[in-house]
Write a sequence for this structure.
């Protein structure tokens, strides 16, 4: 499919981990008209402001990577923030895109949309077949709503709004807050500080037995652009009803204990690992079935250890600007 490198592309959430990676990848492919807006310039929860932004720009494509995200602690502590802000941002952007004639949009969701005890690996068809994990249910419901918004505008108005569901992401521009971050940046910071202060032990939340899949954000950006660039015929060729979203992951998982051991290796920590089983584990296992994306011509290329080395190096190089508090 021939791409118009001069078309206007809006990346919502360009300062976040995923949005910034998408911008880098688009620029690397030669796209010349990528527009962005900071929170100070555009409050995505403000419907009028979002409508006016779309009216001012002749946007051809939208990558909707803006979201309020966080780990178990953050989701437990701020459930109203997670459901409200995510619902408002996605609804405002998707509706404004439609009203202003934007035909192509990619919505980025999350693997937490699937039921807590979904069969593993999780297929796209598992959506809405069971109870969600309680610790992040508000966030998951918001992301499910985003999928259904895209699906509904496609059905009613003939739009081409696609959704991708990434597994757990990590990499440059991650949030390294000690409590509100996801597991990989939290561990990177914790192990780094343990090395710096010569601590003999690092305590890790949970039992260490849950299994998780992790995808480097550069792979996620590549997959997102790949899905956006697939021709319309790709989604119309199947005689069966097409699913409204596509899983993105590696198809490989590991235990939290194995992850912690790898982070310890990457950061040079040689002390003892202690697992605090009084803290919540979350879902027992979350592994994506990525066969559909593979059939569409894309598979992940960055191994977990190589990706962790890259993430740790970024952390070392950007401690003064990383989100640490």
């Amino acid at each position: 499919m021939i791409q118009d490198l001069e078309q206007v592309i809006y990346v919502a959430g360009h300062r976040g981990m995923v949005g910034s990676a998408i911008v880098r990848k688009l620029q690397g492919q030669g796209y010349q008209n990528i527009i962005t807006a900071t929170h100070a310039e555009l409050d995505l929860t403000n419907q009028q402001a979002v409508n006016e932004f779309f009216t001012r720009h002749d946007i051809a494509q939208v990558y909707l990577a803006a979201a309020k995200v966080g780990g178990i602690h953050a989701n437990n502590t701020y459930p109203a923030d997670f459901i409200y802000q995510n619902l408002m941002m996605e609804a405002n952007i998707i509706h404004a895109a439609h009203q202003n004639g934007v035909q192509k949009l990619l919505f980025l969701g999350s693997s937490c949309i699937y039921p807590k005890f979904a069969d593993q690996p999780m297929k796209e068809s598992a959506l809405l077949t069971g109870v969600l994990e309680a610790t992040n249910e508000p966030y998951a419901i918001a992301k499910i709503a985003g999928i259904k918004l895209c699906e509904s505008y496609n059905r009613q108005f003939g739009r081409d709004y696609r959704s991708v569901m990434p597994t757990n992401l990590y990499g440059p521009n991650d949030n390294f807050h000690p409590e509100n971050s996801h597991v990989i940046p939290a561990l990177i910071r914790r192990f780094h500080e343990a090395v710096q202060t010569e601590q003999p032990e690092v305590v890790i939340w949970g039992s260490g037995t849950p299994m998780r899949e992790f995808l480097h954000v550069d792979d996620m950006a590549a997959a997102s652009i790949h899905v956006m660039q697939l021709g319309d015929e790709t989604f119309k060729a199947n005689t069966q009803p097409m699913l409204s979203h596509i899983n993105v992951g590696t198809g490989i998982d590991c235990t939290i204990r194995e992850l912690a051991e790898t982070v310890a290796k990457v950061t040079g920590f040689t002390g003892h690992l202690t697992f605090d089983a009084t803290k919540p584990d979350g879902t027992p296992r979350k592994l994506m079935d990525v066969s559909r994306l593979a059939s569409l011509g894309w598979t992940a290329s960055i191994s977990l250890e190589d990706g962790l080395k890259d993430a740790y190096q970024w952390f070392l190089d950007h401690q003064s600007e990383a989100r640490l508090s």
The radius of gyration is 19 Å.
